[in-house]
Specification:
The protein is of the alpha+beta class and 444 residues long. Helix content is 31%, strand content 20%.
Length: 444
């Protein structure tokens, strides 16, 4: 089975989805199986093992993850040339019998078909596979799924585009997905943040110091003269996107275009100059006396346009029971944020220990705190049952043993708290992880 045949099979599955369907179950199951191939893992896994992984991914990207729904929709792939169900003993699924019960009794082996597995294992074409698999889903949901599996979804470094890469024009930037708009200087939105910005001297209040850029937001310019003729609004799409990037601490790609008398800019064309953190944002009267939105962009630590250094950083794939390490150029981008974000969204960014909900520029702010620490020597899982939604203060206190949670979920702390760990449906906290944390701080 070559990739063209895989693509045809994926397209056929997409056409079979009911019109308007937003179900992620089948795309997630296919990507779970495809990733096993590209990682060199065994082609098939028992349903009892696969079920938990699939349910966690599906829940994290916002779809129904109860046993019956997951089983019924994944079972709908039976007979597809892409996915194999190997039954030791099998009989038809009778009317009235729950799909999850039927699969649990038989515990089939589940995975890519042999031909699809060999093709993906050889080509490593997971990104292309994912692009087709999520086609037809809402864009936000498709991106979240791609992020969960560690596949480029618009943020961070673009695969195959190293820092310093030159582009002839805006069209070339769009073609390589470095900056996907030919006119706008900011790509992104309020909900997800900014993917990329172009620095090319379009606004008179821009200041470029190399590893630090004072970047002017968009809006208020006369399209014919380029002069600022009106105030900018922090709520405009691009400006709001950069605020969200600041709140979520996700770096943005910076592309420099030609700018007269600027030693940091290319003489012609456009150059990808790496990832920058949105350190601060503010508003003030600009040189033309109109209100402008300003952002201090700071080069991600330890990297410059002239010399790129690669670090060994922790990769936290959401739902991974064995978080591993991989070489990457940016820690905050290579961390797969989908699970942590889903937990925080589920709690509406309300701290589980003190009950406070912080907001920055109208956006809820909380932190995903691991209960049993990941990495050596603790080797905690990066799974939902090992995460808490905490405010920054409680996160620091929890990590240092000033807050511990008893088996009955009561809170032990000298600091203000709500008495018991606040819980919500859909987020089960692992009592074994809480016990491990308590044992780290026995004096508590």
């Amino acid at each position: 089975m070559n990739f063209d045949e895989i693509e045809v099979a994926l397209e056929e599955l997409r056409r079979e989805r009911p019109r308007g369907s937003k179900s992620v179950h089948q795309p997630v199951a296919l990507l779970w199986a495809a990733q096993r191939a590209t990682k060199g893992e065994p082609r098939v896994a028992p349903w009892h093992d696969a079920r938990g992984h699939l349910a966690e991914i599906i829940a994290a990207v916002g779809d129904r993850a109860d046993d019956e729904t997951v089983a019924a929709r994944v079972l709908g792939l039976r007979g597809s040339p892409l996915l194999d169900f190997h039954f030791r003993t099998s009989s038809p699924l009778e009317r009235g019998v729950r799909a999850d019960q039927w699969l649990d009794e038989r515990n089939p082996l589940l995975g890519l078909s042999d031909g699809a597995y060999r093709t993906l294992a050889g080509e490593g074409a997971l990104e292309r596979f994912a692009e087709i698999a999520v086609d037809g889903l809402p864009k936000s949901q498709g991106r979240l799924i791609r992020e969960y599996f560690g596949i480029f979804a618009g943020f961070g470094e673009v695969p195959g585009v190293p820092e310093g890469t030159m582009f002839e024009n805006r069209a070339a930037l769009v073609e390589r997905r470095v900056h996907i708009n030919r006119q706008w200087g900011i790509v992104g939105n309020r909900e997800r943040g900014a993917e990329s910005v172009v620095v090319s001297g379009g606004y008179e209040d821009d200041e470029d110091y190399g590893d630090v850029i004072i970047y002017t937001g968009h809006g208020g310019r006369d399209s014919s003269t380029g002069k600022q003729i009106a105030d900018q609004s922090i709520d405009d799409t691009g400006n709001a996107a950069l605020v969200t990037s600041h709140v979520n601490q996700v770096p943005v790609r910076v592309i420099r275009g030609p700018r007269k008398n600027d030693k940091h800019a290319p003489s012609s064309g456009y150059r990808y100059d790496g990832l920058f953190q949105v350190e601060k944002f503010w508003q003030r009267r600009g040189l033309s006396k109109f209100q402008v939105c300003l952002y201090r962009l700071v080069k991600v630590a330890g990297r410059s346009v002239e010399a790129q250094r690669r670090d060994n950083v922790l990769l936290l794939p959401a739902g991974n029971e064995q978080p591993g390490r991989k070489t990457s150029t940016v820690d905050r981008v290579t961390r797969i944020r989908a699970l942590s974000q889903a937990v925080k969204d589920l709690h509406n960014h309300v701290c589980q220990t003190c009950g406070i909900r912080l907001a920055v520029a109208g956006r809820g702010y909380a932190e995903g705190a691991h209960i049993k620490p990941v990495g050596q020597p603790h080797n905690g899982n990066d799974t939902a049952d090992n995460l808490l939604c905490l405010c920054p203060n409680c996160h620091v206190l929890f990590d240092n043993g000033e807050i511990v949670i008893e088996e009955d979920f009561s809170i032990v702390s000298d600091y203000p708290n709500s008495g018991f760990l606040r819980r919500v449906n859909g987020h089960e906290v692992g009592v074994e992880n809480l016990a491990y944390h308590r044992n780290l701080f026995p004096k508590a």
